[in-house]
Write a structure and sequence with these properties.
Elements lengths: L1 E6 L4 E4 L5 E14 L5 E12 L14 E14 L5 E16 L3 H18 L4
Protein backbone atom coordinates (compact mmCIF):
# COMPACT_ATOMS: atom_id res chain seq x y z
CA UNK A 1 0.00 0.00 0.00
CA UNK A 2 1.20 3.54 -0.73
CA UNK A 3 0.27 6.69 1.16
CA UNK A 4 1.31 10.31 0.58
CA UNK A 5 1.22 12.82 3.40
CA UNK A 6 3.13 15.29 5.53
CA UNK A 7 5.28 14.42 8.53
CA UNK A 8 3.54 15.93 11.60
CA UNK A 9 6.66 16.28 13.82
CA UNK A 10 10.36 15.45 13.55
CA UNK A 11 11.05 11.70 13.54
CA UNK A 12 12.70 10.01 16.53
CA UNK A 13 14.93 6.95 16.82
CA UNK A 14 14.09 4.46 19.52
CA UNK A 15 16.45 1.66 20.59
CA UNK A 16 14.77 -1.55 21.70
CA UNK A 17 16.01 -3.94 24.39
CA UNK A 18 17.65 -6.16 21.73
CA UNK A 19 19.68 -3.13 20.47
CA UNK A 20 17.59 -2.93 17.30
CA UNK A 21 16.63 0.60 16.25
CA UNK A 22 13.33 1.86 14.85
CA UNK A 23 12.47 5.29 13.48
CA UNK A 24 9.05 6.48 14.65
CA UNK A 25 7.16 9.36 13.03
CA UNK A 26 3.61 10.27 12.15
CA UNK A 27 2.07 11.33 8.86
CA UNK A 28 -1.13 13.28 8.17
CA UNK A 29 -3.10 12.69 4.99
CA UNK A 30 -5.62 15.33 3.94
CA UNK A 31 -8.65 14.47 1.84
CA UNK A 32 -11.68 16.49 0.81
CA UNK A 33 -15.00 15.79 -0.84
CA UNK A 34 -18.37 17.43 -1.40
CA UNK A 35 -21.39 16.15 0.49
CA UNK A 36 -24.92 15.93 -0.95
CA UNK A 37 -25.55 19.58 -0.04
CA UNK A 38 -22.48 20.62 -2.07
CA UNK A 39 -20.44 21.61 0.97
CA UNK A 40 -16.75 20.87 0.89
CA UNK A 41 -15.78 18.49 3.71
CA UNK A 42 -12.11 18.25 4.73
CA UNK A 43 -10.89 15.11 6.47
CA UNK A 44 -7.45 14.36 7.95
CA UNK A 45 -6.22 10.84 8.71
CA UNK A 46 -3.16 10.27 10.91
CA UNK A 47 -0.80 7.29 10.69
CA UNK A 48 1.81 6.35 13.32
CA UNK A 49 4.71 5.08 11.21
CA UNK A 50 7.67 2.80 11.93
CA UNK A 51 10.75 2.34 9.73
CA UNK A 52 13.15 -0.46 10.68
CA UNK A 53 15.71 -0.54 7.83
CA UNK A 54 18.00 2.40 8.73
CA UNK A 55 17.98 4.94 11.53
CA UNK A 56 19.73 7.46 9.26
CA UNK A 57 16.41 8.56 7.73
CA UNK A 58 15.64 10.36 11.00
CA UNK A 59 17.65 13.30 9.62
CA UNK A 60 15.35 13.79 6.62
CA UNK A 61 11.96 13.16 8.24
CA UNK A 62 11.34 16.69 9.51
CA UNK A 63 7.99 18.22 10.35
CA UNK A 64 6.18 19.32 7.18
CA UNK A 65 8.13 17.10 4.78
CA UNK A 66 5.92 15.59 2.06
CA UNK A 67 6.62 11.85 1.84
CA UNK A 68 5.35 8.87 -0.10
CA UNK A 69 5.45 5.69 1.95
CA UNK A 70 5.18 2.08 0.87
CA UNK A 71 4.30 -0.54 3.44
CA UNK A 72 1.41 -2.15 5.26
CA UNK A 73 -1.26 -0.66 7.46
CA UNK A 74 -2.71 -2.09 10.66
CA UNK A 75 -5.29 -0.82 13.13
CA UNK A 76 -5.05 -0.86 16.89
CA UNK A 77 -7.48 -0.16 19.72
CA UNK A 78 -6.85 0.40 23.43
CA UNK A 79 -8.54 1.60 26.57
CA UNK A 80 -7.00 4.64 28.22
CA UNK A 81 -6.50 5.18 31.94
CA UNK A 82 -9.70 7.22 31.93
CA UNK A 83 -11.68 4.21 30.63
CA UNK A 84 -12.24 5.66 27.16
CA UNK A 85 -11.67 3.50 24.10
CA UNK A 86 -9.19 4.81 21.52
CA UNK A 87 -8.22 3.67 18.03
CA UNK A 88 -5.29 4.42 15.74
CA UNK A 89 -3.63 3.42 12.49
CA UNK A 90 -0.07 2.08 12.25
CA UNK A 91 1.95 2.05 9.04
CA UNK A 92 4.98 -0.26 8.89
CA UNK A 93 7.06 1.47 6.27
CA UNK A 94 9.33 -0.44 3.91
CA UNK A 95 10.18 2.42 1.53
CA UNK A 96 10.29 6.21 1.91
CA UNK A 97 10.30 8.66 -0.99
CA UNK A 98 10.70 12.40 -0.33
CA UNK A 99 8.63 14.80 -2.41
CA UNK A 100 9.34 18.21 -0.84
CA UNK A 101 9.92 20.20 2.31
CA UNK A 102 12.84 18.31 3.83
CA UNK A 103 16.11 19.69 5.13
CA UNK A 104 17.79 19.97 1.74
CA UNK A 105 21.45 19.65 2.76
CA UNK A 106 20.75 16.68 5.01
CA UNK A 107 18.38 15.10 2.48
CA UNK A 108 21.05 14.71 -0.18
CA UNK A 109 23.74 13.55 2.24
CA UNK A 110 21.56 11.05 4.10
CA UNK A 111 20.01 9.62 0.94
CA UNK A 112 23.51 9.09 -0.48
CA UNK A 113 24.70 7.43 2.75
CA UNK A 114 21.70 5.10 2.77
CA UNK A 115 22.28 4.12 -0.88
CA UNK A 116 25.98 3.53 -0.21
CA UNK A 117 25.25 1.32 2.81
CA UNK A 118 22.66 -0.61 0.84
CA UNK A 119 25.13 -1.21 -1.97
CA UNK A 120 27.74 -2.47 0.51
CA UNK A 121 25.26 -4.85 2.13
CA UNK A 122 23.69 -6.12 -1.10
CA UNK A 123 25.90 -9.10 -1.80
CA UNK A 124 24.92 -11.43 -4.66
CA UNK A 125 25.03 -14.52 -2.41
Amino acid sequence: MNIIGRVTKDAQVRTLSNSKQVVNFSVAINDSYRNKAGERIEQTTYFDCAYWLSSKVVNILAKGTLVELTGRVSARAWTGNNGEVYAGLNFNTSQIKLHAGGKKSETVQTATEINNNKAENDLPF
